[in-house]
Automatic annotation (TrEMBL):
Its cofactor is FAD. InterPro entries: Acyl-CoA_Oxase/DH_mid-dom, Acyl-CoA_Oxase/DH_mid-dom_sf, AcylCo_DH-like_C, AcylCo_DH/oxidase_C, AcylCoA_DH/ox_N, AcylCoA_DH/ox_N_sf, AcylCoA_DH/oxidase_NM_dom_sf, Mycobact_Acyl-CoA_DH. This is Acyl-CoA dehydrogenase family protein. Residues 130-222 form the Acyl-CoA oxidase/dehydrogenase middle domain. It comes from the Bacteria. It comes from Actinomadura fibrosa. Residues 9-125 form the Acyl-CoA dehydrogenase/oxidase N-terminal domain.
Length: 429
């Protein structure tokens, strides 16, 4: 607890702490610590039931306006909630893509009818969402999207493929960037569509990752349909909306993500104590640096959230992705160094991994998905610092986009690092 917290915030912290302690006893006592990166498959029905219990208690969508199912919580209160959630070792969230990405986007850019239709089921955790951004040839270079959508009467008809779509198997809806203007290219002619997942014409194929699990999926649209009204913003305005969603992900959603990060760091510290690795001055220094990095991440997320309160986030939000992606990958490496030689041996046949091995393997992709580190540095350099763009390649050389904005993490990602163009956690497409 921060001794300088305002009395109202201190009271809010006590309320959160008391509720979590009570709620995570009894029927939900077994849910503590479930889920997280590389473990999104873990106890999904139980975690869904837990999150619906949270919703019934009014603890989802805290930052949303009260008239849309939230609490109108301040930035400080949202930070407090996420800190207490981590301290309580509460389970990893299942509705974060809808709550932290799609919800704020609908609030900022949606119609009144869209807010009335889509926000209440998100707040109640009755409908889950996934993100349809990445494609085989449109990873960090999202502007190369080729999935098409065309109006047919009162529906958009969608054809194409998305990949690395987090939790697509569990999702009821997908927000997808599609090319709706024939002959358009790059950032022009894209639209932001809301597409039901449980319909003919949607084929979901899980992707087995290095961790052996399948949080991520390929999604094929073959004549899938959605109502013509299920477009956020105007036709052709999808790039602007999609970039705003990424900004929300790298701001508010980063705090939710840090719930798991804090728990993982605490676990690595405890592991170092148990194995005696904490007596190694080099490892102890890295543990201290990891703690400092997490605090910097928290402060940066808080700063980003303060900007979000004034409107849609800007390109500065790329700083968050660069910070957390690098930090989390280094935490996985640190965990393996703490384990030492024992970290190279699986817990069981044929491929039973412990939590630290899974963290190491999963976090290899953190600096690639949701926009690679290279892409984020270009965005920060060109759009935040105002530095000149890289010179265009010679006409005879292969072209590559290095300055387009990236896709989301929170919400989709790959635990395979075989392609540097792979993008988006997403938690989380």
């Amino acid at each position: 607890m921060d001794e300088y917290e305002a009395p109202a915030d201190r009271a809010f912290r006590a309320e959160v702490r008391d509720w979590l302690e009570t709620a995570l006893s009894g029927d939900f006592a077994h849910a503590r610590g479930l889920g997280g990166p590389g473990r999104e498959h873990e106890a999904f029905p139980e975690r869904l039931a837990w999150e619906r219990h949270m919703a019934a208690g009014g603890w989802t969508c805290l930052g949303w306006p009260e008239e849309h199912g939230g609490r109108g919580a301040t930035v400080a209160q949202q930070v407090i909630f996420n800190e207490e959630y981590a301290l309580a070792n509460a389970p990893a969230r299942v509705g974060h893509i809808g709550e932290n990405l799609l919800g704020p986007t609908i609030l900022a850019f949606g119609t009144d009818a869209q807010r009335a239709r889509f926000l209440p089921p998100i707040a109640a955790v009755e409908e889950l969402w996934c993100q349809g951004y990445s494609e085989p040839d449109a990873g960090s270079d999202l502007a190369n999207v080729q999935t098409r959508a065309a109006l047919d009467g009162g529906d958009w008809v969608i054809d194409g493929q998305k990949v690395w779509t987090s939790l697509a198997v569990e999702a009821d809806w997908c927000f997808a960037v599609c090319r709706t203007e024939p002959g358009s290219s790059r950032h022009r002619g894209l639209s932001y569509l809301l597409v039901p997942m449980r319909q003919p014409g949607v084929d979901i194929r899980p992707i087995v990752q290095l961790t052996g699990t399948s949080e991520f999926n390929e999604v094929f649209f073959d004549g899938a349909r959605t109502d013509a009204a299920n477009i956020v913003g105007a036709p052709g305005d999808g790039w602007r909306i999609a970039m705003a969603t990424l900004g929300f992900e790298r701001g508010v959603a980063t705090l939710g993500q840090q719930v798991g990060f804090r728990r993982e760091l605490d676990g690595v510290v405890e592991l170092a104590r148990r194995t005696g690795a904490i007596d190694d001055p080099l490892l102890r220094d890295r543990l201290v640096r990891a703690h400092m990095g997490l605090e910097i991440m928290r402060l940066n997320a808080t700063r980003t959230m303060a900007g979000v309160e004034a409107g849609a986030p800007g390109p500065e939000s790329s700083i968050s992705k660069l910070v957390w992606g690098t930090w989390h990958r280094e935490l996985g490496e640190l965990a393996m160094d703490v384990l030492g030689a024992a970290g190279t041996v699986a817990d069981g046949a044929p491929y039973e991994l412990n939590d630290w091995q899974r963290l190491f393997l999963f976090s290899r992709a953190d600096t690639i998905y949701a926009g690679s580190n290279e892409i984020q540095r270009n965005i920060i350099a060109e759009r935040v610092l105002g530095l000149p763009r890289d010179p265009a390649p010679a006409a005879s050389a292969p072209t590559a986009s290095t300055s387009s904005a990236s896709t989301s993490s929170a919400s989709t990602s790959s635990a395979s690092t075989s392609s540097a163009s792979t993008s988006s956690r997403e938690a989380r497409g």
